[in-house]
């Protein structure tokens, strides 16, 4: 198995590619469904199949895969540290440039393609991780656990207080109507919607996703410092899964039901806190299962197929937004609220398979994805090779 100090770990890339599938499976609903995250509000959900598919996505995908991506961000941070050490280069200036470039890309992505983007969150939280780069792995894990517990407990207490105050649901159809009109209209209307809603959405996303993402950064950092994916410890897989899977699924089920059928009130706030508290366990379940699968003959082939997708994860994340924009907004077909809900996951699967093929083809000729190349150029203050040498 390749050394963490000598080569990129294929498992990291493959896990990141797998995370892209989960992120796409969530984001497609944000483009295709104007009533996203509230099943009870959408008049198009008339069948049990529609409700079942939407609940499945909320149960298994929402709030899980950005955590996996966050864990891998923290893990890759340690690979960047090792790369700077090998090059005898100052690490802090490198990472400052990298994070600022990521922030610029994230804001541009949000204003142009998807107002719910997460790159700017990663860029800002990456600066926090940079400040904490000297933490020991054990201390990083303790801080991560405290962060999750405090943040999630706060949400759950707020939910109880909301319920006791008798606050009615604040969910309205106004935003859904605006989104439907913009995405069904012209490219200019779509652009206006994204650019205006970006600044309304970002503070909420930083508040909702920031604490959990930072905690997973710290977990990933601790794992990277101990080279878990380079030389995995002797995990007792079955024992771990007996804890992570049922507890994670329980919290996810409560969250999915509340978000779908009781949006905007104290119950949803409480369920969000509970879901965020248990989501890292379900994310860990996915990670453990995929690592175990990668160590089987068939799984090794899957690992090889997923790795190119994950190696150029930034480019693929941006490409997903572009493709979804062409399908569901005024940038292209404007199919928002026109596709049967049960078809959205198969469509996401087709897009993902296309990205797997395209990533492998691109990396056969280029050492980096296009946006990875750009980020690397800013990080190193040098022009990396664009094409692979013969």
Can you describe what's shown?
The chain is mainly α and 390 residues long. It has one domain. It is 75% helix and 0% strand. Helix 1 runs parallel beside helix 12 and helix 6 packs across helix 8. The radius of gyration is 21 Å and the shape is globular. The N terminus is likely disordered.
Main traits of this protein?
390 residues; mainly alpha; DUF418; Bact_Transport_Assoc
Strand content: under 5%
| Number of individual domains | 1
Question: What Rg do the Cα atoms give?
Answer: 21 Å
DSSP, total strands:
0
Q: How many strands, what sense, and barrel or not for the largest sheet? A: none
The coarse silhouette is globular
Structural class: mainly alpha
Unreliable stretches: 1-7
Give the CA-CA distance, first to last residue.
26 Å
- What is the H/E order? HHHHHHHHHHHHHH
Helix content: over 70%
Mean pLDDT: 88
The count of helical stretches stands at: 14
Transmembrane segments: 12-32, 52-75, 119-136, 143-165, 204-223, 243-262, 274-296, 317-336, 342-360
Pfam family, one: DUF418
Domain DUF418: 223-380
Organism: Pseudomonas brenneri
């Amino acid at each position: 198995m390749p050394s963490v100090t000598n080569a990129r770990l294929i498992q990291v890339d493959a896990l990141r590619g797998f995370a892209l599938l989960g992120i796409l499976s969530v984001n497609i609903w944000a483009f295709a469904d104007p009533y996203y995250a509230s099943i009870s509000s959408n008049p198009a959900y008339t069948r049990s199949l529609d409700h079942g598919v939407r609940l499945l996505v909320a149960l298994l995908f929402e709030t899980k895969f950005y955590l996996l991506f966050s864990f891998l961000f923290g893990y890759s941070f340690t690979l960047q540290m090792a790369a700077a050490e090998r090059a005898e280069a100052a690490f802090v200036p490198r990472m400052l440039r990298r994070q600022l470039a990521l922030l610029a890309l994230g804001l541009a992505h949000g204003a142009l393609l998807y107002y719910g983007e997460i790159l700017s969150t990663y860029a800002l939280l990456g600066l926090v991780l940079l400040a904490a780069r000297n933490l020991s792995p054990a201390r990083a894990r303790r801080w991560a656990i405290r962060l999750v517990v405090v943040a999630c407990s706060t949400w759950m207490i707020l939910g109880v207080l909301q319920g006791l105050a008798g606050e009615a649901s604040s969910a309205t159809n106004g935003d859904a109507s605006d989104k439907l009109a913009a995405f069904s209209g012209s490219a200019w209307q779509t652009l206006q919607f994204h650019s205006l809603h970006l600044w309304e959405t970002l503070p909420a996303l930083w508040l909702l996703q920031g604490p959990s993402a930072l905690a997973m950064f710290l977990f990933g950092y601790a794992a990277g410092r101990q080279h878990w994916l380079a030389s995995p410890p002797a995990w007792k897989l079955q024992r771990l899964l007996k804890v992570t899977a049922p507890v994670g699924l329980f919290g996810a089920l409560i969250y999915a039901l509340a978000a779908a059928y009781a949006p905007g009130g104290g119950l949803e706030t409480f369920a969000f806190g509970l879901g965020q508290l248990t989501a890292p366990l379900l994310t860990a379940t996915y990670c453990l299962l995929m690592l175990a699968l990668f160590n089987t003959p068939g799984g090794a082939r899957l690992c090889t197929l997923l790795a190119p997708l994950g190696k150029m994860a930034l480019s693929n994340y941006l490409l997903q937004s572009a493709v979804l924009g062409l399908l569901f907004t005024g940038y292209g077909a404007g199919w928002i609220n026109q596709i049967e809900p049960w078809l959205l996951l198969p469509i996401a699967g087709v897009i993902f398979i296309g990205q797997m093929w395209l990533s492998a083809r691109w990396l056969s000729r280029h050492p980096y994805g296009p946006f990875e190349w750009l980020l690397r150029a800013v990080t190193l203050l040098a022009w990396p090779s664009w094409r692979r040498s013969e």
